[in-house]
Amino acid sequence: MLIHQRTLGKEISLQGTGLHTGQDCMITFKPAPVDYGYRFVRTDIENCPEIPAVIDNVVDVCRGTTIEFEGNKINTTEHVLAALYGLQIDNCRIEIDGPEPPVMDGSSIHFAEALFSAGLVEQEEPKNYLVIDETIEYHDSEKNVDIVALPLDSFRTTVMVDYKNPALGSQHSGLFDLETEFLKDFAPCRTFCFLSEVEALANIGIIRGGDLDNAIVIVDKKLSDSELKTLANKIGVDSSQLTLGENGILNNRELHFKNEPARHKLLDLIGDIALLGMPLKAQVLAARPGHASNVEFVKQLKKYADRNKLARKFQHEKKSGVIFDINAIQKILPHRYPFLLIDKIVEFKLDEKIVSVKNVTMNEQFFQGHFPGNPIMPGVLIVEAMAQTGGIMMLNGNDNINDMQVYFMGIDKARFRKPVIPGDTLVIEAIMKSRRRSVCQFEAKAYVRGDLVCEASLMATVVEKNN
């Protein structure tokens, strides 16, 4: 894979109509400096606001991926972003004089060919790859969607679709080399929908720019001549232009590839992965993906990236099975002897879950008085260890960690099940239940040899330190 970042050699423009909004617009791709990423710029709005193409800015996934920043939106970003990501371009300013990029033919090929013709320029800074070194999974049982990222020192992705519809059937496709396969095998693959969906989509007004040239319509139901005429009126075409087709595609349109729908789903997945904000080294396997599931999967990748970024910041020596050792913990928490009550962090999912370990020895100073001849760890200190564990989970979501501190606001439902004595290893699991601005609630449980010894519900807030 490429080592250095890429941008364009010169600017280039295309013009067309947005698929969902139906508005004509001009889109211009421009070179950008290193670490700029992808940013849409609405030139039709006063002061030309920028809308960074990042996962945190996704606001809608209905038939496309819409992003918004400070009240300014861009609809249907995936085909543009797929073209940029597929050509391994890292930095690009995308100026657009409307709310949605032009649909062109419903694929990424026009964008990709334009970008390629503008020239791809290598920049001085290295690419900031997200390297996956553990399995990351997304599962939606209701929609029967599975997406998984596996460790791999390159980028590959495989997509399987199965709509349980005889008009389409089951299909799969795989991309193994962006450099050689993207432009010719995936960029030309067009968006598609079922005939049964077209009328509903037209009724809610989200395919105002759709026509017979920018989408594949798969015939999954029979229509009478009168129903076909009604449909033609709804989508604004002459009814004489519509035929159900003998190949299962409206108007007998030919597919670019036998599995073009599966390839387009892979293209959409790449466009949504681009919202991660960094190139990915992983093997991505997706079963029945869509924009909603893609976005949730990329959010998981983003949390993994944030966790790794923070781990690199505080944990300078990589240790097997350890996220943060005691040296890293002391960079994060202000606590010191005799009140630093956790030794290491062994599991950490940003804003979700954290697991710490406290090795309890007879050298603990509190055993001198609690109790002579019958040493038992005070319950209040077990709760404090829980609080410190949760505090790391909260502080690690903050870029200005050295200026922040956690204050606990409440402890509820504390229960002490078994005594903790010298020689025990205390394993503490804290799970985030809610986070609103700076206030968090989490449930914590402490175990010794798999047995629950203590549990509590805690509330805390993150505040700036008093200087």
From TrEMBL:
Keywords for this protein: Cytoplasm, Hydrolase, Lipid A biosynthesis, Lipid biosynthesis, Lipid metabolism, Lyase, Metal-binding, Zinc
Major localisation: cytoplasm
Active site: H291 (proton donor), H370
Cofactors demanded by this protein: Zn(2+)
Pathway info: Glycolipid biosynthesis; lipid IV(A) biosynthesis; lipid IV(A) from (3R)-3-hydroxytetradecanoyl-[acyl-carrier-protein] and UDP-N-acetyl-alpha-D-glucosamine: step 2/6
GO cellular component: cytoplasm; membrane
Entry-linked InterPro entries: FabA_FabZ, FabZ, HotDog_dom_sf, Ribosomal_Su5_D2-typ_SF, UDP-acyl_GlcNac_deAcase, UDP-acyl_GlcNac_deAcase_C, UDP-acyl_N-AcGlcN_deAcase_N
Reaction equations catalysed: a UDP-3-O-[(3R)-3-hydroxyacyl]-N-acetyl-alpha-D-glucosamine + H2O = a UDP-3-O-[(3R)-3-hydroxyacyl]-alpha-D-glucosamine + acetate; a (3R)-hydroxyacyl-[ACP] = a (2E)-enoyl-[ACP] + H2O
GO BP terms, alphabetized: fatty acid biosynthetic process; lipid A biosynthetic process
Subcellular location: Cytoplasm
GO molecular function: (3R)-hydroxyacyl-[acyl-carrier-protein] dehydratase activity; metal ion binding; UDP-3-O-acyl-N-acetylglucosamine deacetylase activity
NCBIfam families, A to Z: fabZ (TIGR01750), PRK00006.1 (NF000582), PRK13188.1 (NF009667)
Family: Belongs to the thioester dehydratase family. FabZ subfamily.
UniProt name for this protein: Multifunctional fusion protein
Organism (species): Prosthecochloris marina
